[in-house]
Amino acid sequence: MSSSIEQLAKEFAPLAVKEMVQLPPALVPKPAPAPKPAAAPAAAKPAAVPADPSVVGRVIPNPPSVAPTPAPKPAVAAAPKPAPAPAAPPPPPPKPVQIWKFEDKGLHLEVTVEPANVVAAAEIMDRHGFAIDAVTGMDWPTQGLLEVIYDFLHFQTGERVAYRARIARNDPKIATISKVFPGADWHERETHDFFGINFVGHRDLSPFMLPDDATYHPLLKDFKA
Amino acid sequence: MIESIFKFFTTEPYWTLTRSILYLVGICIFVAANAAYLVWVERKGAGRFQRRPGPTESGPWGLLQPPADGIKLLAKQLMAPPGSDKILFWAAPLMVIAPPLVCLAAIPFGNNVLARDLNIGLLMVFSFGSINVMALMLGGWASRNKYAIISAARVVSQNVAYEIPMLLVVITIIMVTGTMNLQEIIVQQAGGFWNWNILRGIWDFSGGGWGHIGGNLLAPVTFLIFYICMLAETNRAPFDMAEAESELVAGAFTEYGGMGFGVFFMAEYANIVVGCALATILFLGGWQSGLGSGFGTLLTSWGVIGTVIGVGFFFAKMYFLIFSVVWIRWTFPRTQFYGLLNLSWKILIPISLFTLLLTSVLLKLPRLF
Amino acid sequence: MNIPQLIPVGDPSAETFTINLGPQHPATHGVLRVKLEMDGEFIVNAQPVPGYIHRMHEKMGENRTYAQYLPNTSRIDYLSAMTYTHAFVGAVEKAAKIEVPLRAEYIRVITSELNRISSHLVGWGAWIMDLGGFTPILYAFDDREKILDLLEAITGSRLTYCYYRFGGVCDDVDQTFIDGCKAFVPYMRERMKMYKKLVTGNIIFRKRVEGIGPISAEMCRKYGACGPVLRGSGVNYDVRKAEPYSIYNQFDFDIPVYQECDSLARYLVRMDEIEQSLRIIEQACAKIPEGPFQGKVPRILKLPVGDTCFATECGRGRLLVRITSDGKEEAYRIRLRTPCFTNLSLFEEASQGMMLADAISLMASLDLVIPDIDR
Amino acid sequence: MNLVTETFSGFLSLITGLRITIKQFFSPTITTHYPHQTLPIAKKFRGHIELKWNEETGKPNCTACNICAKACPSDCIVLDGIKPAGEKGKTVTSYKLDYTLCSLCSLCVEACPFDAIQHSNRYNLASVPNQWANMDLVQRYKDQVTRVGKTPYDPYAPAPAAAPAAEPAAPAPAPTAQP
Fold first, then answer.
1. Chains A and D share 3 or more Cβ pairs within 8 Å
2. Which has the least CB within 10 A, A54, A66, C83, D19?
3. Residue A145 included in any domain
4. Per-residue pLDDT tens for D66-82?
5. Where do the structural domains in chain B lie, given as residue ranges?
6. In this predicted complex, what is the ipTM?
């Protein structure tokens, strides 16, 4: 039971975040040099981004509680203020639900969902017969964000859907989707290894790829070997 | 002085004893040489089956490889894993090598070449042959290794399962030949190869026709069953559950190193020799030439030379069977454990029971008329 | 054939013991460890413990330029290095919109398919070896050597080729290579007949794989299984058809699909795939055009900001490369979603209640390459 | 009945297998007996890199521009050069390759704008690591040039002097570069 991308996009719409920032932020034309992501988060924070990213700013605040309440309207805490710093015309805000041309991105649909909605989104995927492709993370230290990316594909139609959720870097918690897709179990364990993201409800988050006594998370940008 | 001692041992009644001892020593040498050079045959054969030359570096055609391996194994330290039952652990290799040595004492290699002409030779070979499984079980159990224990459990159920069809088949032979004396069984197969037990009973050239009196109509099948059971009893591929290296690392031998492992290794080949020799005797006419009752019988009954020719025929048949064992090993994958048991209980035992029944009916029929 | 469940799995009263299959074990083909909880010969729970040769390839991608990352991609799955490089090169080309000349695409298809065959041959041989048959792997290596000789003649190496470049390949092929490929196709077809007689028809082999290790299509979907494992479960999915990359849509080939969901189905898929790859090679060798083998690539390659996904069908299944760029010379993040990782992840569920020897057969049917799991 | 046919066909399949292997048994072997026989090395074989030189002048093509070192993913190249008296460009004086790090990816060869490095076809490098892992390619170049009967170029020689008289004070004669 396949479904057209548009219909999927409609189903995803209520789960998506309301406001988006472009990540990575280097689309800003010239004036503000792209914040060096490899730098330590606290030190190299540009002036544009407020100190506490979870309060206000161009950053999506994310509720630390990840109770899987299927609330269709997630609470967006603070209205985002226009960023003061970039003098140049701000880049067009990216859409939370984005339909791509496959030739460009290798994706048909990309959605940024509220962190609380990842399980609901996985259930949508499951309902439409999608298979799990991968779960992974991404670190945005300057924005104080961690991103969890869920890739899905459809065996019959070949459709590719990815959705992502952004969580605070200082309290990385998100619900596990391994109850819906058991295959996510290993991917999430690996993501926990590499990024330190806590998948709430996961059966076993002990080090997987890393040594048993590993306390570091190597894919964080501030990790130095 | 020396002459008198010599005379003392070479005249009756002590000659029998001397003879037996000499035979036993000879058999020991024979087993050791066989084990060593069957390893060479196995490796060379494996190489050829896999389109590679096999051992070549030590000696011409790698012929010095077995001594080199032996020296390496001898030079290794003997170690028992901590916590294992040391006595049982070291008893197992001894138990596994002793039975084939004893068995070979009863096997006639030629017209007069045998240690003891037992009239229950067959029974003796089988009773001693069954000790093998005990030894593997002990080795596996005493090693204090989980792989070895799994292997021990497998070996026991495998050998128990395959003893039955093997013995049923042998009973068929005993019924046909009416004796348990191995030499007697060979003598009965004199004449052409159609008189061998593998073919005898299908067609009798001396006028018996189909289902000849005292024959076994399914004799080739009987041979096949015997051969399969022999493979299984000696734990050879495709029934090498005891070793099963891709599953159980090295099975019952996992914890054995040095000569402990070497003895197991030798025993495996000694067992193959016993099994193939037995198959030769029971089905392929032993040292009989199989070239007809005139020339062929003359060939093997011509004094000492005849005996040597007979031994030559025996070895030719036996080594062909051994080669086929190697051939099978390097062709087939291993059977699954339940597949192995299914084969025994569901296929081999019914068929061998049926042949037993058929043979006994055929034996009885002429007396009814 | 259904193996009777002699012992109820999950029975708390059952007395179990744990054995380690690996990290050094003949059946794991590398340093994979599987913690087996056994009830006699029956597996109660099998937990794979990967990570013994974890090399953090993804982090390496973040501190070297795209070109410098190229050699890494050959070393993830060393048995089908070409297809892995293809995925990474394809992702970069897609993001940077680099045109690849047609001849280079043909060369890529030919070498990828040769590599797929050689990969399947090793998988095939190793599988039979896991089942206790030693000879087939050496026959397979004989044929594989022929492929490696062909590839060595053009790439200079035999295992980790590092042959593809952004916008093409690093060196042109000559007529000798094309002729060699053309000659290889009928040779390999003859050998396949022999393999089928020697192994596929063999009753012992069939008993070892038929009905063993059922993996349903639904389970594949839930675990994201891919490659021959997926196609052996009756799902007609092949990246070469579903997300056609390179010039695969110009060739006439079938995707072998078997509905049986057992190890035999996965085996047959691989055997048929070798034949389909031969078909592709045959067509590509006939049609390969003259022309440049390297497109125009900027000396300093910077990808536009954003994500790009690119998937290829490797010997073992779908490899997804997801490059996130922040406009620098190095990638911001490279995600490699490897086939063996997902294929092994279903082992725990699929092997429940199996006998040890069958679990080995199932694991061999997944055709694992350990660096591919660990990365 | 099924069991009977299966047994029978299974037995036949075993015989087929045996027939195939015995055919292989009597076929010639396909292996190369390595230390006694060797195979020809492929023309494009990727061994470790070596310096190329100008056939006429005997001067290495390398201008010590460091592009190869920058292209290398594993930082295994360290090179240095000087500007010889009376020359326009630089010339390499030391080219150290840490072969333990090299992945033979050929990126340095491709990056080189002067066609100064190529892959050698040396493959049997087994020895104690210290002896082969740290290669001095300049030394290797000198050995090679000497072998073809020419005098290696000496960047330290005074400009007009035609033939360098003695072995120059080349950087550390690392124990490498056997043929």
1. no
2. D19
3. yes
4. 888 888 888 888 888 87
5. 1-75, 83-364
6. 0.79
